[in-house]
Amino acid sequence: MQSITCENLTKSFKGDGVETFALQNIHVTFQQSDFTAMIGPSGSGKSTLLSIIGTLDEPSNGKVLYGGEHSPRKSNAVANFRFEHIGFIFQQYHLLPTLTALENVLSPVMTRKVDYDKTARAKELLDRVGLAEKAGSLPSQLSGGQQQRVAIARALIQEPDWLLADEPTGNLDSETGEMVFQLLQEIHREKGCGVLFVTHDETLAERADQVVRMVDGKIVSE
């Protein structure tokens, strides 16, 4: 899946007789070879666009093409498509509080049949993000930066084509945020996966291969 193309994407919500647009006529293509930043003020539609690209949400109009093909439409097929191709990283980490770091990394594949040793790969990924010694720790025993690195390892467990990261450094101090950002860059180079990340940080966005700027649900520059 070398590219993701959004064609005429619109997302709107209706309430009290008023239609509010979160996205308006979005046309953009992302390449797997690029490390891409989406930047813009709060409410500009960045996270909405990321959710639609990641098949977590559906547009009101328009379409998303993955390598030139439509995504499946049935819910179980969409879930399988997402599992095989897309890894998510969230600002709030979304780790399961009662599971250890290792178990959190394993959680996407726990109930699935795969052709590799799940635990071995999870341990390898924890080692890759520098947390091998924290495999048995609960999220409450980890710092914010450590929790985000566990979340990155979890997103990589199925070796996705794309990593979608929504404000991955937003809850971190500048030093820890820089470490997480550099880790994402390294993974992009090592794994060959496309990275699309949402950020408010201009200095981070300037270091991306592609920068998409959004205002009021529209792309204003690319």
What does it look like?
- The chain has 7 helices and 10 strands.
- It is α/β, with parallel strands linked by helices.
- The chain has a single domain (3-221), classed as Rossmann fold.
- Strand 1 and strand 2 form a beta hairpin.
- Helix 4 crosses helix 5.
- The mean pLDDT is 93.
SSE topology:
Elements: E1 3-15, E2 18-31, E3 35-39, H1 46-53, E4 61-66, E5 69-70, H2 75-85, E6 86-90, H3 101-106, H4 118-128, H5 144-155, E7 162-166, H6 174-191, E8 194-199, H7 202-205, E9 210-215, E10 218-221
Parallel strand pairs: 3-8, 3-9, 6-7, 7-8
Antiparallel strand pairs: 1-2, 1-4, 4-5, 9-10
Helix pairs in contact: 4-5, 5-6
End-to-end Cα distance: 21 Å
For this structure, what is the CATH homologous superfamily?
Answer: P-loop containing nucleotide triphosphate hydrolases
Helix content: 25-40%
Counted by DSSP, the helix tally is 7
Strand order of the largest sheet: 6-7-8-3-9-10
β-strand number: 10
Order of helices and strands: EEEHEEHEHHHEHEHEE
Number of domains: 1
CATH topology group: Rossmann fold
Architecture, according to CATH? 3-Layer(aba) Sandwich
Shape: globular
Spans of at least 5 consecutive residues whose pLDDT stays below 50 are: none
- Mean pLDDT equals 93
The largest sheet is: 6 strands, mixed
Rg is 17 Å
Structural class: alpha/beta
- Overall CATH class: Alpha Beta
User: Hey, roughly how much beta strand do the residues contain?
Assistant: 25-35%
